[in-house]
Amino acid sequence: MAIRLPEGTAIIGQSGGPTAVINQSLVGVIEGLKGYAPVKRILGMRHGVDGLIKAKAPVDLTALTSEQLDKLARTPSAALGSSRAKPNEADCVKIYEQCKALDVRYFFYIGGNDSSDTCRIVYEMGQKQGYDLRCVHVPKTVDNDLMGNDHTPGFGSAARYVAMAFMADDRDNASLPGIKINVVMGRNAGFLTAASALARQHHDEHSGPHLIYLPEVAFDVDRFVHDVSECLSKHGRCQIAVSEGIKDKDGVEIGAKLISGEKDQHGNAQLSGSGALGDMLSNLLKERLKGPTGKPPRVRADTLGYMQRCWPDPSSVDAAEARAVGVKAAQEAMTGLTDGSIAIIRTSNHPYKVEKRVIRLADVAAKTRHMPVEFLNGHNNVSKAFVEYARPLVGELPVMFKLPM
Question: Which domains does the chain have, with CATH numbers?
């Protein structure tokens, strides 16, 4: 028996931090909806649900050509504009009114865990009002912290950027030895910082990063100084990867303690917009470590910041998977799915294979996935298991040549 689908408008929104491949997912949804009679037109929210709340006229995506869609897919960042708005009850009424006015029956939201929660809220709003509004969450986040997923679109490309940045920086650090600290995105999950380990192409103990600090392991200042001192004695230099979200033994973010200013709409300190953590760690090492002459060591710190998200050299694997989850979301809606999230599940590592599955919104909404214990190696490193996990996601990396010294 054929499933009767409501006729009306499909609307797509993008939410949270932009990525290098979020437009691949947008295009995937559009392509997946093409040719289905119940979908009379395809619209794009301007700046996510914030655009609906403010009654901004949506973008008509219905007539985009295949050539335009391919160009859009290859363009980094959120083409429709993004948002970190988390709707309250009053906002939900406005979203519902806009959806009804636009005859929206299919609601697709591309984003992370907060975005999946927004999708859940919008679906439940439609249910309360007796309005047939089908809501599908399309995964996206460079943090790779969505529950129920092996990995998320956006992570592979950001991890590729981090790996290559550390490769180049390691060669710089070897040329002019000293201490180099690179602060990487990741408030609660260390996946992206851990990706710096992919820079160790030569599989020797001298290749950086020499030390990796993640939010999943309590950060101890005295232990950190000791680690760096030992690394200097052993290698004559030290390259360090630090997650912006490192926490002390009480679970308090060290970076947030240093920043008293800007917060996002969820009340979180804007860690990626500040170099405070790198500066603090640099100053700490200068104060606590002395060279043979009694002078402090040469220490430099960089915060990789927002450039990790949208660098226009995405992982080919990431780009293909981002598009595929968009297509999957559309296809599931067109076969009767009323609400859910699309997840990427790895079925094999050798060879690398994945499949896309539907999971409940409640299983992913507003939840955070952390680095599993098997991906950690002590308090300042990652395991071989993590490297094997991450390697297929970043695509082919450039090869660095080292002269025997």
Answer: 8-153+313-363 (3.40.50.450), 156-309+372-393 (3.40.50.460)
